[in-house]
UniProtKB/TrEMBL annotation:
GO molecular function list: acyltransferase activity, transferring groups other than amino-acyl groups; hydrolase activity
Residue ranges of the region described as Disordered: 366-407
Name assigned to this protein: Peptidoglycan/LPS O-acetylase OafA/YrhL, contains acyltransferase and SGNH-hydrolase domains
Naturally occurring in which organism (per UniProt): Kibdelosporangium aridum
Domain Acyltransferase: 11-349
Keyword vocabulary terms for this entry: Acyltransferase, Hydrolase, Membrane, Transferase, Transmembrane, Transmembrane helix
Segments passing through the bilayer: 12-30, 50-68, 80-102, 154-173, 185-201, 213-234, 241-261, 267-283, 290-311, 331-349
Start-end of Polar residues biased regions: 395-407
Amino acid sequence: MPETSSTRKISWDILRVLAVFAVVVEHITHQAPVNHPELGGYPFSLPLQFGASTMLVVSAFFVCVTIGRRGWLWNRVARLVPTYFAAVIVTYVVTRIAVTVFDRHAYGAGGWLFGASVASAPSAVPWLLPSPHDLLGNLLMMQVWVPGIHWIDASYWTMPVQIAAFVVAALLFPRRWLNARNAPLWLWSLVIVPVVLRFTVRTDDAPQWVKSIFDGLALNRVQLFGVGVAIWLWSTGRMRVWHLGVYILAALVAQDTHAYFTDTPSTIALGVVLLVVCIAAGGRDWDVPFVRRLAPAITWLAGISFGVYLIHQQLGFIVARTLLDLGATPLERFAASFALAVVLGWLLTKLVERPVHRLLTQSHAGKLGRSPASPVPSPRPISQANTVGAGPPTSGESFAAANSQSR
């Protein structure tokens, strides 16, 4: 029998925590010494980059699950965008302070917060000082579209990708352009077309406007959204298992192709995680005794995972550098950076994400003349399904328009 709508599946919380904290650990132990060699090594290193890709796949899966609900797009924008704005502003301010101390900058008009540097101490590896131009560009999510805008935090690359995907999904859904009959054509185009464009149009010597369009639309990542949709189709009986397997394999090859096969181990790791995602989508919940005992902690971490993702990288680098100057060991720097990600992610969720989401969704519902379904936003992550189970497809049915629920 289908579970009730109040049932929360711990398996999806586990996947959310796995994906986000894989990103955190990879950035602390691998990316930090790459960006800032003075930080040196850590007790271990996780060089596999699969966490963010997993997040996009899971996000696409739950787009299919939830897109038919009232106010779907506004609900996501209200949760993501204000939280992102807060993270950008906090990271900008802290980075300006930290880089001023690290490289001993002196400023002209505008002071330490907005002024241009007029002098700095010689440094073998100077830290990037973000400018007001960078701040505005990051707030508008134009880092890829406009040359010369620097990422205040490189983790932000997923934001414009997800927002664009949500908008496209919202435009396509009411028109029922995606249905059970033509879904394979759409899905395979997400794998094949970007690869063809990558080697025929978006070459290394292509004009900047071509690079901006290709990279701004994240065409090298759209196959990940296709994988999420394909897993949903399979989990609801709309795609055969062999077709899903071939599609995932092709998407993984496409992902590695876009990177010129320079990071195949990460692609293999992503393939393993996608197998786990399929198990979560098509199998029973992982509500076993051991997991049940850890459920409160897993659910709490999953609930703050978006905040953790937004706030962990640049500020973690700054904390590691500060502790290095104070003589901390690599293990101490790792522990502090990890703990900081959790604490700041919790604060961002508690002080910004949930209250602002509640305010915006209540205001939006009021303008439409009705009250929101619940006055308190759910603590589940933005990609967490509220319901489970799905009926068989009907001919010509939009695969996102059915009473779509995850099993």
